[in-house]
Design brief:
Blueprint lengths: L4 H14 L6 E8 L11 H5 L8 E8 L14 E6 L13 H9 L7 E5 L4 E3 L3 E7 L10 E6 L2 E15 L22 E3 L4 E17 L5 E2 L4 E3 L4 E6 L8
Amino acid sequence: MTLTLEELRKARDDAAQAVGKPGPRWQYKTRINCNQGDANAGCGTAAAACTNGQFQAVVLRRLVNPDGTPVTQPEGQWAEWGVTCFPDMLPGSNLPTMAQIMQAFRDVNFTKGDLKIQPVGNVTLVNLPTYFEATWPEAGVGPDEIDATPLLGYRLEIQAEARSLTYVYGDGNSSEPTTSLGGPHPNGDIRWTYTKPGVMPTRLDTTYGGRFRLNGGQWIAIPGTVDVQGTPVNLTVREAKARLYK
């Protein structure tokens, strides 16, 4: 049964008015409306069911005495009352929201991308194709790695995804956003030819997307992305000079 806003408001008001008064009162708790007892069942339906940033919640209630102990009748046992997209209206609700998950996603310590460059030694020549390859150091959460944190009593896992990479060549040019990891000579498809000598602060910028799950349930895509600027790698571009020898 889907609970109406009127029912929720009345439940909230009745709970507030019952504080300090004799006689039993309703006590409430909520849980995300995920299938129970199925390890492969997640919260995808609960996340998609609401348009207000909440997960669809199952509301449970029981009658308790003024001191908070449950009454001895069956009404003192937890029983499902209905489902709602407005669990925050009820006392006893403690559910994550999509906004909180989005904030947790933005707070992930994503790995800053790095570059391998050929020719080796971070030195190249004018008019010589230079090859770039994406790498990620150990520190932080890189592509396909999982960050796990507690959130309101739930285990929140966020898996990072590299949605796109931008190779910054340091001379004012960069690649278009791509999913290519590049590679070494001769088959690497991320390459650039410099026309002037100098020290070029190259870097790899990563646009991270992600997905999340709660308590080991179904993975759900996270809307939005996070842009992470890579660690600069100075590349020296030299100009080759031809000499005649006798």
